[in-house]
Amino acid sequence: MDSGTVRRSSPPSSSGGAKRIVREAIWVLFMVVFLGTVLIWIMMPTNTYRKGWSVSIRAKASNSTFFGNQGYSMLMFTFPVLFIACLGCVYLHLGNRPSELQVGKNGKGSNKGLATWRRPALVRGPLGIVSWTEVAFLTMFVALLVWSFATYLRNSFRSIDRMGTRHGDKPWQAKLEDSGLRLGLVGNIALSFLFFPVTRASSVLPLFGLTSESSIKYHIWLGHIVMVLFTVHGIVYIIYWIVVGEASQILMWQGHGVSNLAGEISLLAGLVLWATTFPRVRRKMFELFFYTHYLYILFVIFFVLHIGIGFSCMMLPGFYLFMVDRFLRLLQSRSRARLISARVLPCDTVELNFSKTPGLEYTPTSIMFLNVPSLSKLQWHPFTISSNSNLEKDKLSVIIKNEGSWSKKLYQILSSPSPPDRLEASVEGPYGPASTHFLRYEKLVMVSGGSGITPFISIIREYIFMSSTFKSMTPKLILICAFKNSSELTMLDLVLPISGTPSDLSNLQLQIEAYVTRDKDATTKSSKQAQAVRFKPSSRDEPLSAILGPNSWLWLGAIISVSFVMFLILIGIITRYYIYPIEQDINSYPTTPRAILNILVICVCIVIVASAAFVWNKKRNAREAKQIKHLDGSTMAHSPDSGFYNAEMELESLPHQSLAQATNLHFGERPNLKKLLSECKESSVGVLVCGPKKMRHDVAAVCSSGSAGNLHYESISFSW
Questions:
Q1: Which positions ≥6 away from 317 have C-beta within 8 Å?
Q2: Per-residue pLDDT for 567 more than 90?
Q3: What average pLDDT score do residues 519-536 get?
Q4: Collapsing DSSP states into helix, strand and coil, what is residue 19?
Q5: Residues 6 or more apart from 490 whose CB is under 8 A from it?
Q6: What is the pTM of this model?
Q7: 22 to 15, 92, 93: CA distances (angstroms)
Q8: Whether the Cβ atoms of residue 501 and residue 655 lie closer than 8 Å to each other
Q9: How far apart are CA 306 and CA 253, in angstroms?
């Protein structure tokens, strides 16, 4: 075995080969459905689709007394995407678990063409740091919108010129109205993608190598596109109504077809939400931005009431998956997490340690959302998980830097001379990448600024686990961290866990270059010492556990599929035995009541199925949770002089001495990133950066240069 490669040795397994075959089959099926869906989107504005394909499919799907026209829309737009989501759940379930990850070189065997596409293409600009892949997909998406709008206009303008106008409008007036209509249709296409990036436990994003955290910028881009299109759509229609003398249409709520007033309410909610998303407002008044985002509920409800459930089926899949995820997060957030201890560092930093069940596994760089009711009952804040589920089976840790009003209050409470005996907290997550792709590089360079070191702590601990488990050399690790003051050097104490760390770190090839920019020497280091805080157990607190158990992906797929099938059955029964006897023509039933019925049935089905799955798994996890509670209770019975307590509180040990030997301190200077990165001559070097915007831009600029073909850039930045 190569000295720079670590792999889990296991005998050949027929089940492993079968899993691989099944995964490949699922991938092929996914690509067929995905490409077919893309083809439908491309062909949708053409006459070939509208007068050929659509007519033929509607003739078979829309005559049913169970669904009507809605059946066609669900078949064409809703079912394929939800089917892909369920396929993704099975695909991810059959994939490698965190404990089965491999580390090894990929520089020679990797696809250099794909690596080139991942390189930064744009570094400084309104879109931030954008790779060539992102530029390509963004260009294709904008091309789809432009193609759809242009094709719609070309065909409809030809029809107006050839057949004349309706309602006695002049040709230019009819074209103005049609332009507004087509803008709305194109906006609906963009809206269909809006909720995918913010579905945290998404089974769709990992199929494209994405996570919700890394996709937030796509949500921002899509949000701006959606609001521009819908705003212009509304303005064009208002101008049209005024020009033709029908200003009263602005307040019309029609029983059938499009409801104008509902659309205006939806647009108004969207505009208020949109106004708070711009960087200046978001940074200075984050709470205003956060709370106004809940207007998305009004936006979506009145959007559905505006166009009816049939046209809404185009955007329904993304929002459906988001609702499933949001309700599961709500159920998880109702429990109180078992917070067992905290470390308060002199650099205004706190490490919180939660009890967890051994079955809860997560990948490095995962995050979780934390709520502390004593600080705010409504605020949830994302934090990087610094612990490692392989190395620390019964504990989960997060690091919180004092950088805002919420974190400042938390630090003041825990650093006080008399900290509380118990701190009530709730958790959502963890959320993280489906695989740890950074383990494939020959060398890994991690560049951080300030609290940006936190995601790299979990990576280093993963390498500690790998080196101690396989007793072999791991790929080289270089941590370049910049701090403002000497007191912040104490954050390096968090790189290694206090307990459970292997004493032999000789196989870990770790080099730390720590830069203190404002202090000239170490004499200015703070005299304050780290403080350990223990919390007393409570019978209401529960160890953190996987919300849907160890087979969470399968459970998620079951929730999505079962709830949607239940929705189809219930809405079919309501349509056949309630709507049809009244109207005889189900397609003439009033739009608003039908939309409300569908919204209610969707919500009821998701609540019933997700709640049943949650309760089932919660009961199954109860036994394991009781064991953890018993263990924590016995731990608290130890006196402060016991060996266990001393091991927990001791901040200086042999591993930490080894860490100190691997650390080079630089005072009064900033890291020369270009020089440090250019010294990496290995064929495959992963470059991860987490820190200020300028630091990310500087690293991206180096990695995007023509002479840095061996550098593979990735930014870890949580921008919401």
A1: 77, 78, 81, 82, 85, 192
A2: yes
A3: 73
A4: helix
A5: 345, 346, 347, 349, 526, 530
A6: 0.87
A7: 10, 11, 11
A8: yes
A9: 9
